[in-house]
């Protein structure tokens, strides 16, 4: 069965982000999945959806296999009111879901402000501000590696 992607909404954050976040419904293998996809600026949505459809299907297939392999389909959590540990069911939507935000968005949210980066660069590589900036950026890149 051929899959189908339907656009539900589009969020364009602006600022330094040059992509939009598309909220879509994917009909695949007789099931519906709510998904999120980053869309580069200036692309034709219908054409882009056709290009990325195989990778989305592959991602869904992998997550469905992971879901099916869980035994038991439970997890232990702490009750926020009583503080006691409880065993609860894992919902399929917790496993079969898009990986958003991606490393790019996560990094962007933690990088120092551009003005601070420019200030450190202006002071030069021998300054303590420059070294702190470099260390902070390397820490963030390690925390959110490219996937």
Order of helices and strands: EEEHEEHHHH
Strand order of the largest sheet: 1-2-3
Oligomer: single chain
Number of helices: 5
Mean pLDDT, as a whole number?
A: 89
User: How much of the polypeptide forms β-strand, as a percent range?
Assistant: 25-35%
Keywords:
147 residues; alpha+beta; three-stranded antiparallel sheet; two-stranded antiparallel ribbon
What does this molecule look like?
The chain has 147 residues and is α+β, with helices and mostly antiparallel strands. The protein has a domain of 47 residues. 43% of the residues lie in helices and 26% in strands. The strands form two sheets. The protein has a three-stranded antiparallel sheet, covered by helices on one side. Strands 4-5 form a two-stranded antiparallel ribbon. α4 crosses α5. The protein starts with a strand and ends with a helix. The mean pLDDT is 89.
């Amino acid at each position: 069965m051929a899959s189908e992607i339907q656009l539900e909404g589009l969020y364009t954050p602006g600022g330094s982000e040059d992509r939009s976040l598309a909220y879509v419904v994917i009909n695949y293998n007789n099931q519906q999945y709510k998904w999120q996809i980053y869309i580069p600026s200036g692309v034709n949505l219908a054409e882009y959806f056709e290009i990325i459809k195989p990778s989305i299907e592959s991602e869904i297939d992998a997550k469905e296999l992971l879901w099916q392999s869980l035994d038991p389909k439970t997890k232990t959590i702490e009750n926020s009111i009583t503080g006691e540990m409880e065993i609860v069911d894992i919902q399929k939507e917790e496993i079969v879901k898009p990986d958003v935000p991606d490393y790019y968005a996560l990094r962007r949210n933690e990088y120092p402000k551009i003005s601070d980066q420019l200030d450190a660069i202006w002071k030069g590589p021998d300054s303590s501000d420059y070294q702190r900036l470099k260390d902070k950026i390397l820490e963030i890149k390690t925390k959110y590696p490219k996937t």
